[in-house]
Amino acid sequence: MKNLVILISGSGSNMQAIVQAAQRDDWPGCLHARIAAVVSNRPDCAGLDKARALGIATESLDHRAFANAPEPRAAFDAALADLLDRHAPDLIVLAGFMRILTPGFVRRYAGRMVNIHPSLLPAFPGLHTHRRAIEAGCRVAGVTVHRVTEELDHGPILDQAVVPVLPGDDETRLAARVLAQEHLLYPRAIERLLREQLPP
Ligand code: GRF
């Protein structure tokens, strides 16, 4: 059985879409995969409530507790790795996890970590992707699922979906249409990844 752990920081709508797809399509049965836990760096985020309502184990690790460590980012990542390793993760799914991970952490889970980014990478890595796409006059925006490497939002692309930028679009409207596509794309990309890893 493969263990998936999903990392979130906010509303957790992508996490919810993944869990619902796993439950609907019977991932444990056909893909030998289970969502072992949902983990957040924000103990009060709405996504944790959604995960509990779906019957998934949750854990939180507040990054603010590490603010006074000599190297706060490295200290948080070390504690996160300890927590994750208790779930023996085969795949770590970043779903709106708003923390930049240290190179050491990324290397520890090399080949076992995926992310979703709301732009057509390599365009617009980083924040405010929808605003930047509108300001640049893009006719299309979109979403990318990619492997996580040490460089932020730059790992090999696993799948993408294109979303048109419509006349009169603002950041909020475009973000909502992109998010709807995220909810379709991410579960499909993870399912394909799991299927590829199945023994023949
Ligand atoms: C999504 O747009 C995702 O692409 C980005 O952060 C947002 C998270 O939304 N990385 P949610 O928490 O899954 O609702």
Give a description of the structure.
This protein has 200 residues and is α/β, with parallel strands linked by helices. A seven-stranded mixed beta sheet has the order 3-2-1-4-5-6-7. The relative contact order is 0.16. Helix 5 links the parallel strand 4 and strand 5. It has one domain: 3-Layer(aba) Sandwich (Rossmann fold), CATH 3.40.50.170. Bound molecules: 5-O-phosphono-beta-D-ribofuranosylamine.
- What is the residue-mean pLDDT, rounded to a whole number? 96
Helix content: 25-40%
Query: How large is the count of helical segments?
Result: 7
What small molecules are bound in this structure?
5-O-phosphono-beta-D-ribofuranosylamine
Helices and strands: which structural class?
A: alpha/beta
The profile of the biggest β sheet is: 7 strands, mixed
In short:
This protein has 200 residues and is of the alpha/beta class.
Features:
7 helices, Rossmann fold, 200 residues, 7-stranded mixed beta sheet
